[in-house]
Amino acid sequence: MIAATKPIRRNVAHGFSFAVGWTLLMLSGCAMYQYGPSSLYRSDIRTVHVPIVRNMTFRHDLGVRLTEALVKEIEDRTPYKVTGDPNADSTLVVTLVSENKTVLTETSSDDPRALDASVTVEANWMNRRGELLLQNSVVPNSGTMISFSQASRFVPEAGQSIDTATQAAIEDLAERIVSQMEFRW
After folding, report:
1. pLDDT digits (tens, 9 = 90+) for 40-58
2. Which runs of E-coded beta strand occur in 128-160?
3. What count of other Cβ atoms lies within 10 Å of the Cβ of residue 151?
4. Residue 128: is it exposed, middle or buried by C-beta count within 10 angstroms (0-12/13-18/19+)?
5. Are 120 and 95 in contact (CB under 8 A)?
6. DSSP string, 31-65
7. CB atoms closer than 10 angstroms to residue 163
8. CATH of domain 42-179
9. CA 81, chain centre distance (Å)
10. 20 contacts: CB under 8 Å, gap ≥ 6
11. Chain-wide mean pLDDT for the chain?
12. Which of the two residues, 110 and 171, has the higher pLDDT score?
């Protein structure tokens, strides 16, 4: 009777050690896998300096409005903290290149019925060492600045204005720029 229980104990012991070894092997294979929102952003960056957007247009308030939208979007969607310190871990530099409105449809008396307000910017995000963190996924190695353009439609007859359409375009641009701050897979 004693001789018969030794092989059973030995098989149970081997089975248990095999299960533990297999579990450790599987867990070690997934050790570098991350999940959740923290996996979308760089772990080496904690602070972002966002200087006032340089405005190359005649509408002087657009640079400040875009800066505010960028700061709000970074604070809301990313784990990064926006700081006024130029020695932050990274710096997001944005230049507002152009803004315009385009008439899409007119009435018979040549009054604009529907228009597009568009805003074009160039952005660059770099770390403290000067390495580029934003990467153009469409045209790799296209230079240091990446262009973004956004349009928003408005209808003056319905009470909409160029200011509300431009603000919508600015908010969409801020969302698109911050989306590019996500870590590439």
Report:
1. 788 889 999 999 999 999 9
2. 146-154
3. 17
4. middle
5. no
6. TT---SGGGGS-TT--EEE-PPPEE-SS-TTHHHH
7. 13
8. 3.30.160.150
9. 14
10. none
11. 83
12. 171
